[in-house]
Amino acid sequence: MKHLLDLFATVVARVRPPVCIALGSPWPVGNLVAALGGQETVCFQMDLHQASRVRDCLSEVGAKAEVVTGPDLWDLEPRFQTVIFPAASHTDRELKLDVIEQAYHVLRPGGVLLSLSEYEKDNRFAKWQKKVFGKCGETPSSENGMAFWSTRPDEDGKRRRHEVRFHAKLADGPSMEFVSRPGTFSYGRFDNGSRAMIEVADIRAGDSVLDLGCGNGAVGCLMGGKIGPKGRVTFIDSNLRAIALTEINARANATPHPRFLTETRLEGLGRREFDLILANPPYYAKSDITRLFIEGARDLLRPGGRYSIVTKMPTAVVPLIFETFGDCSVIENRGYSVIMAEV
Predict the structure, then answer these.
(1) Domains in the chain, please, with CATH?
(2) pTM, rounded to two decimals
């Protein structure tokens, strides 16, 4: 945290309001807002859970900013004089490129993009920003990282969408095409854990299916090809870009009776509504997220309903399943553990 604030101090003189902080982890974002000293600031996040945590951090540091969510940064009005991108070292390369591209379109002409990199020697941001903005300045390499700045020219730039399409299929089903974009689960490919889960899941014609933490919706779409026209698939995720992609993919693949929900705590789902729930939480997710995916799911299942979750950490997940469902079975597939339970 101190490294980020020390790095920001070297370029803070370039900041002019209104300011947009694009993505970033909650605590760094909260402290950047505090460092801006009351300048008009909007914090943009794609995930409702992250946005809630940003609000909590702002409250704790005594700073004020508007926190907004959306699937794309460029959905915001192009009124900002400064966009700050606090790029953590773990941020995906494609998401960094996407933010740089989209930041161009929310800046006024003459507005500045400031990218803050945790890397002591970062040789990528300058190249990326030059490609989009034409020019890029940078601070010297230091233990605090490097900062990069580019000014938007007067002309409107062409919007370039970062996305990858991929195909996936079940052994006895049709091949389906999916659109994926940076910042969502399993960008550019069908996740091996998801494949391991649906290959062994108990799927029946006419099922009402919940794709829990749906990402780009590939699991639910493939389930839709198995349950037939009398079934239905509900997709839920806290990431607005994920749900936007899911809507595209579900309609393109004729998913039966799709429903789309953007929620953080499984709100909007009915008790005893589903015959089958499929969950693939990120293996690095905090235990409270995995617990929510398990405990929150039980009351959503009808009598005889089936629950499947895939994990690389069965010793952490199986006890939660036993606490919630009373019993379970574990199937090893493709290097993953698929844990299955019934009510």
Answers:
(1) 2-151 (3.40.50.150), 164-342 (3.40.50.150)
(2) 0.94
